[in-house]
């Protein structure tokens, strides 16, 4: 039986570099962190709803430390990792865990089915995995602006994203039981394209494609800014959407 390696869409090296730059940017008082804050709050709400009090927890991707702090306050033993210290495309050490939470991370791995299987294997029996990341409905205005910037031959600049149906199939493929996929939309107001790009960099959400596109020239940037602001409301603000996709699965 022949085994084929998954296509290399993302660069792990670029991903780690972007995360490190984001941590430096977070030192500024006005640095954006709303996506991760939203994911953390959502996870805590879910755990409270199902009344889960895990003993051992693995948290991936929460560079704020907020989720781990809350879980430790409830008596859990928590291991924390990010893309620099843990490769989700490899078997995970330290288990078994009663709960694994991955935030803003799984959408940037080349072998997502394999990563989900590694997470499942690191769970204890009846363990729970919760993974949240930007889904296919995210950043529609930015996508239109990027297409307008290079109308003749647009370079690949934005990540392929996963929708609900594909996510459900991936959970089944990774042998999770009682799996649930749901999403909600976070809407953020921007006064210009430059602010959106800055917010993405603050949160380590810049492009980490393996084939990096060349920088946009001045004319292309002007076309992108114009196309972005054409979508503004009567107050001169563009309401951009982030679809937060959440995958939940149990190991029975």
TrEMBL record:
Instruction: Write the protein's name.
Output: Methyltransferase domain-containing protein
* Transferase recorded as keyword: yes
Q: What are the UniProt keywords, alphabetically? A: Methyltransferase, Transferase
GO molecular function terms listed in the Swiss-Prot or TrEMBL record: methyltransferase activity
Any one Gene Ontology biological process term? methylation
**InterPro entries reported in the protein's UniProt record:** Malonyl-ACP_OMT, SAM-dependent_MTases_sf
- The species is Qipengyuania citrea
Any single Pfam family the record assigns to this protein:
Methyltransf_23
């Amino acid at each position: 039986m022949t085994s084929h390696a998954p296509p290399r869409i993302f660069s792990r090296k670029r991903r780690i570099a972007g995360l490190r730059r984001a941590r430096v940017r977070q030192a500024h008082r006005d640095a954006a962190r709303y996506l991760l804050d939203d994911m953390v709050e959502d996870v805590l709400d879910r755990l409270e709803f199902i009344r889960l009090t895990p003993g051992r927890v693995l948290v991936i991707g929460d560079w704020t430390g907020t989720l781990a702090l809350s879980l430790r306050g409830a008596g859990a033993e928590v291991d924390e990792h990010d893309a620099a210290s843990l490769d989700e495309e490899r078997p995970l050490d330290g288990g078994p865990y009663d709960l694994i939470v991955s935030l803003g991370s799984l959408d940037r791995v080349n072998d997502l089915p394999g990563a989900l299987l590694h997470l499942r294997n690191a769970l204890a029996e009846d363990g729970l995995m919760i993974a949240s990341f930007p889904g296919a409905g995210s950043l529609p205005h930015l996508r239109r602006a990027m297409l307008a910037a290079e109308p003749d031959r647009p370079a690949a600049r934005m990540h392929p994203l996963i929708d609900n149906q594909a996510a459900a199939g991936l959970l089944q493929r990774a042998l999770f039981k009682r799996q649930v996929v749901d999403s909600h939309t976070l809407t953020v107001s921007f006064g210009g394209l430059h602010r959106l790009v800055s917010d993405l960099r603050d949160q380590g959400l810049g492009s980490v494609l393996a084939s990096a596109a060349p920088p946009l020239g001045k004319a292309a940037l002007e076309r992108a800014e114009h196309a972005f602001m054409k979508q503004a409301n009567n107050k001169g603000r563009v309401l951009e959407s982030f679809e937060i996709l959440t995958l939940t699965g149990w190991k029975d």
